[in-house]
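Hi support team,

I'm filing this because I wasn't sure whether my run with NAP finished correctly. The job status page said complete, but I'd like someone to confirm that the output block is well-formed before I use it downstream. Pasting the exact inputs I used:
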Amino acid sequence: MTTIIDGNAIAGQIIEELRVEVSALPENERPCIHLVRVGEDPASVSYVKKKQDTAAKIGMKGLVTVLPEATTQAELFALLAKLNADPSVHGILVQAPLPKHMSERETFNFISPKKDVDGLNAASVGKIVQDDESGFASCTPSGIVELLKRTNVKTAGKHVVVLGRSLLVGKPAALLMLQKGPFADATVTVCHSRTQDLPSVTRQADILIAAIGKPRFVTRNMVKEGAVVIDVGINRIADASRKTGTRLVGDVDYDEVMPIASAITPVPGGVGPMTVAMLMKNTLKAWKISRC
Ligand code: NAP
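And here is everything the job wrote out:
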């Protein structure tokens, strides 16, 4: 029987564990994450609100600065310089996507590595490569590792195929699976849009991580019977049967693939809720680092 990996339940456990740990701290010494949003992109508005609400639920401080769309790169850097220097701020996250006139890479790299709770700056990625646990792993891939851990899916010696090579998901997911340790130690293949005969590669996966942003792209013929399938995709498609006229689907054709997988994450309710939980976990880690 296929195990449906319940990301909502696992993220809920993590949030509760963090709440218990944080509530034992004096009010004036609690971890603080400062979220920065530039512009009014509706998805960013809702993601930032979710992050702030989750921080509050845990008892952390979640501060938000909203800058207008026309903010210059220099103005954003000036704000980040202040936040980098402010000892009362432990974690900083700049919500992507940024307006086109800004560089996301330069912005991520401007955040102090000690406060980079989103795990996207060069120092954080480098620490993952060096197996240095003092760094921050990007939240969605570390959420995937946590899902595997908490459902006891062993990765050591297994063939993990990662579909997608973005800085946000694919590359760090591959790097985490390559690290040494009980829930890593995998043999890793990374695929992308130039990979030839993709199904023949994905069919080799004991664990398939799909992160390409294409609705229901991974079909039954691309998956080995008994594989563990982690669906990172969040895609909104038309659905006339819904009041809203749309619904969310992943990068995996769930109805086709679920019956042959040994375990699978649903969309919604799989990887998605883990991202915010791991951001909060990283914020507590940043707070601990600030006290060393
Ligand atoms: P992205 O930056 O657009 O990267 C997509 C990757 O997929 C690229 O590496 C691209 O290859 C590859 N790709 C695209 N079409 C392909 C094809 N036909 N065959 C093989 N590879 C293909 O996307 P992302 O930021 O990684 O996000 C991926 C998905 O995850 C999206 O649906 C996003 O909404 C979702 N997501 C979810 C969460 C969460 O919290 N659950 C967090 C982040 C993202 P090239 O590099 O060759 O172009």
